[in-house]
Design goal:
By secondary structure, the chain is mainly alpha-helical. The protein has one domain (2-103). The chain contains 4 helices and no strands. The chain has helices spanning 2-13, 15-48, 50-53, 66-103. Helix 2 (15-48) packs antiparallel against helix 4. It is elongated and about 70 Å long. Keywords: Membrane, Transmembrane, Transmembrane helix.
Length: 105
């Protein structure tokens, strides 16, 4: 158990690990900020421009501009999640495994 605790401390103190954590956090927070901006923009449109949100997409349709706009926010969220997962699997996980391998030597 002490060897495991020592290796955890060794990993946490590793400059490569700290750089990886900073890079991963910066990327994750950037994507999260995009989602938050999209959601709050939609809410602000609903609050301050309900007339525009309630405009039909095409004349005579019952579907308003708000419906595709709301769906696009959901698609954006799923897309950004896929981008994060892809980068995590390709870059962050590989780098993390290399740092662990070095620490356990």
């Amino acid at each position: 158990m002490q060897k495991h605790a020592a290796s955890c401390v060794h990993i946490r103190e590793n400059p490569r690990f700290q750089a990886l954590v900073r890079k991963r956090n910066r990327f994750a927070f950037s994507l999260a900020a995009l989602v938050v901006i999209a959601y709050f923009s939609f809410i602000l449109l609903v609050a301050f421009r309900p007339d525009w949100i309630a405009t039909p997409v095409f004349a005579g349709m019952t579907v308003t501009v708000g419906v595709p706009l709301g769906l696009s926010i959901i698609v954006l969220t799923v897309g950004l999640t896929a981008i994060y997962v892809r980068r995590a699997n390709r870059e962050f996980d590989e780098e993390s495994m290399e740092i662990r391998r070095q620490a356990l030597k």
